[in-house]
Amino acid sequence: MAQLYFYYSTMNAGKSTNLLQASFNYKERGLNSLIYTAKIDTRFGESKVSSRIGLSEKAFTFDKNTDFYKSISEKDFKLDCLLIDESQFLTKSQVLQLSNVVDMLDIPVLCYGLRTDFQGELFEGSQYLLAWSDKLVELKTICFCGRKANMVLRQTEDGTPIREGSQIDIGGNEKYISLCRKHYREAFRKS
């Protein structure tokens, strides 16, 4: 029986690596999987999922207008798994479409994304994946102090924490750092 999975974490926990490993496992067994990633994230090139450890794979892209259910139901081959990277950028409607892929087409959907933004607020996609997924899996990473990192700090090039701004600002280690809640708060007290 297919299920909707949400693998979530902060930055640098290995979400994309985990997704690419899942895709490899399906293909190694002769099964068909499709990968989608957010069109707005072009850090590693367009239509590509890449991990920090050097793994990458071609992917389809999605934006707010993508209809996952329509696209998947029209495929002319048997699909065994759908993998979504950067799933925090999904809309509420798209999470519903993905749940319909699971429930009506009996295809497992594995979503990978951030839980919260740099202000500790849920992304829309994450909010509805947390609410509607059959399985929630937290991928953990650590703060520099060794505690579990559960916050993402956006910072300037010189390391000054950024308190305000657009929820979406694509970047990697040059812009974001994962911290425990204690050190996230301390970063703002120091600035």
Describe the structure concisely.
With 191 residues, this protein is α/β, with parallel strands linked by helices. 28% of the residues lie in helices and 23% in strands.
Describe this structure in words.
The active site is at residue 86. It catalyses: thymidine + ATP = dTMP + ADP + H(+). With 191 residues, the chain is α/β, with parallel strands linked by helices. Helix content is 28%, strand content 23%. The protein has a single domain (4-140), classed as P-loop containing nucleotide triphosphate hydrolases (Rossmann fold), CATH 3.40.50. The chain is built from five helices and ten strands; from the N terminus they run E-H-E-E-E-E-H-E-H-E-H-E-E-E-H. Helix 3 runs parallel beside helix 4. The mean pLDDT is 87.
